[in-house]
Amino acid sequence: MICKFCGKPASIYIRYANIALCREHFIQFFEKRVKRTIERFKMISPGEKIGVAVSGGKDSLTLLHVLYSLSKLMDFKLIGFTINLGIRKYSEECVKIALENFRKLKLEYRIINLRDYGFTIDDIVQYKISKRVCGICGTVKRYILNKVAREENVDRLATGHNLDDFLQVILQGYIHGDLKYLSKYFPVTPSRNKLISRIKPLVFTPEEEIKKYTVIKGIDYCMKKCPYSFQASSHT
Predict the structure, then answer these.
(1) Which domains, ranges and CATH numbers included, belong to the chain?
(2) Between vectors from CA 149 to CA 71 and to CA 115, what angle results, nearest 5°?
(3) Measured on CA atoms in the order 136, 102, 217, 185, is the torsion positive or negative?
(4) Which tens digits make up the pLDDT trace of 30-76?
(5) What are phi and psi of 191, to 5 degrees?
(6) Cα–Cα distance for residue pair 215/210, rounded to 1 Å
(7) Does pTM surpass 0.85?
(8) CA within 20 to 30 Å of 191's CA: 17, 149, 154, 174, which one?
(9) d(CA 194, CA 39)
(10) Which of 61, 91, 88, 110 lies closest to 219 in space, CA to CA?
(11) Which residue has the higher pLDDT, 33 or 193?
């Protein structure tokens, strides 16, 4: 296969669009869609400071790199946030990789240790505080990210939810008839009371293309799965 735009050997075939793209034009295709998503939903305004929730996984690190590529063009600033959840043989590697990416891009960042709040996710499991480990973890992350974002005067908080996540949530909401649950996953959640506005720039980006983007861009990410992730329905 050859690239539709330049005739070079194609690196990826996008079935739903019926186009083959080389590495360079795939990156342009990928980042242009994210830019259009941001513009369509008015996710970011010029001059704003955007906090990026970075877990160390492929979705959040792809989001970080794409927003970095778009930041000068769209005139906004970035700061990365990573939480060390204290999960043995998992959290340290995730934080290490997130830190490497922040430094590589020369971005402002904050690493938050859950231990500073008096507990870790491992503690919750060890002392059987709750069977809903993933539910508690998600709530804790949302609280801490919002708190830190306010401290850093962030205008919006960006998360790495992708199209696959979004479709999964729609299906679950439809099955359970929970419209309130669905509303939480709209591409933009406006600020209210003391909650920072949340945005999902990758909401129309398939997971398979995110994987390809990390390979082509050489983005290192944590490939380990959280040992408690079998309980999770979607990431935060």
Answers:
(1) 45-231 (3.40.50.620)
(2) 125
(3) positive
(4) 999 999 999 999 999 999 999 999 999 999 999 999 999 999 999 99
(5) -70, 145
(6) 9
(7) yes
(8) 174
(9) 25
(10) 61
(11) 33
Secondary structure class of 50 (helix, strand, coil): strand
1, 9 contact by CB (below 8 A): yes
H helix runs in the chain, sequence order: 23-40, 58-74, 91-105, 121-126, 133-151, 163-176, 179-183, 207-217
Spatial distance between the Cα atoms of 140 and 137, rounded to a whole number of angstroms: 5
Strands (DSSP E) contained in 102-192 are 108-113, 156-158, 188-189
CA pair distance 78, 105, nearest whole angstrom:
10
Q: Tell me the backbone φ, ψ of residue 43, rounded to 5 degrees.
A: -70, -35
- Start-to-end Cα distance in the chain: 37
Looking only at the bridges linking them, the beta strands covering 188-189 and 197-199 are antiparallel
CA 78 to chain centroid, in Å, comes to 14
Pair type for strands 19-21 and 77-84 = unpaired
Other CB atoms within a 10 A radius of the CB of residue 113 amount to 15
Percentages of the chain per state (helix, strand, coil), in multiples of 5: 45, 15, 35
CA distances from 93 to 51, 59, 216, 221 (A): 21, 16, 22, 9
